[in-house]
Amino acid sequence: MTTPNQRKNLIRKLLKGIETGDPAAAAVVNESKYIQHNPQTHEGSEGLAALFARLSKTNPRVNIVRAFADGDFVFAHTEYDFATRRIGFEVFRFEADQAVEHWDNIQPRRGPNPSGRTMVDGPTTPTDLDRTEENRRLVRTLVQDVLIPRRLDQLPHYVDAELAQHNPNLTDGIAPWRAALEATHKGAPAIHYQHLHRTLAEGSFVLTVSEGTRASTPTAFYDLYRLKNAKVVEHWDTTEPVAPKSEWKNDNGKF
Q1: What integer pLDDT is reported at residue 45 of this predicted model?
Q2: Looking at residue 29, what DSSP letter applies?
Q3: Kindly report the CA angle at 245 between 214 and 219, in degrees rounded to 5?
Q4: In terms of Cα–Cα distance, which of 196, 185, 181, 189 is closest to 145?
């Protein structure tokens, strides 16, 4: 059985295979069981090794900024430079030594934000590994009891006032983030978290996968939080519209 660190390294190699074209990078994936949740990707239409060989000829660049392991899951924070520059979160589920399921959330790279932070800079190594479950519970409560019901006056109980913010539209601090969450669009919340699908954690880092709307458009919200002393002290995110089901290229769903 592969260790968590071995799994992280296998996923790093897999994602880097897009750039290198190395067919061995795809060996981590059990293609006979693989479930693809990116709605824009055909399932089973092309083997990964052949796909990587084709993509590598376009001179893509792939940088895996952070990678974490949580039980059967590995999740990574990545930046891509294909025809355009993009930032993504990639989530893989393992069975034994191979990845059998994949989710992602990718948006155009923008910024730096008014505080000078990019969408990916900052600490990359988890600390406080003994507090993984405590941090997972805190962030799950933040989403379920504050963001979804929009009890935004409760944010200070979970978030440090000097929050380091990597969202390209916002400055540091809890106040600008709260203002963005309280904003409206045509009489409805501009950002509306509606359902928490998954909470993944390793030490001081916690990733949440949520569904909701942005400007009334169905949207996937992936939020990465870094915690210290039981408070969120840093935040990265990507938001991606969820394509209408009529446009999906597989039937597995975004979440």
Answers
A1: 55
A2: B
A3: 15
A4: 196
β-pair partners for 101? 35, 93
Tell me which residue of 77, 104, 98 sits closest to 34, measured CA to CA: 98
Tokens representing 25 are 């990078």
Alpha-helical regions (H) of 30-119? 48-56
Is residue 182 within 8 A of residue 228, CB to CB? The reply is no
List domains and CATH numbers for the chain: 4-109 (3.10.450.50), 129-241 (3.10.450.50)
Which residues have a Cβ under 8 Å from the Cβ of 219 and sit 6 or more positions away? 211, 212, 213, 239, 240, 241, 242
pLDDT band for position 68 (50/70/90)? very high
At residue 50 the predicted structure's pLDDT band, cuts being 50, 70 and 90, is: confident
Contacts of residue 119, Cβ cutoff 8 Å, sequence gap at least 6:
79, 87, 109, 110, 111, 166, 167, 168, 236, 238
Neighbours of 73 (CB within 10 A): 21
**Predicted local confidence at residue 55, as pLDDT:** 78
Q: Which two tokens stand for residue 106?
A: 């990718």
Show Cβ contacts of residue 182 under 8 Å, excluding neighbours closer than 6 positions.
150, 152
Q: How far apart are the C-alpha atoms of 107 and 93, rounded to whole Å? A: 22
Average pLDDT, the chain: 94
Q: Distance (Å, rounded) from C-alpha 50 to C-alpha 44?
A: 12
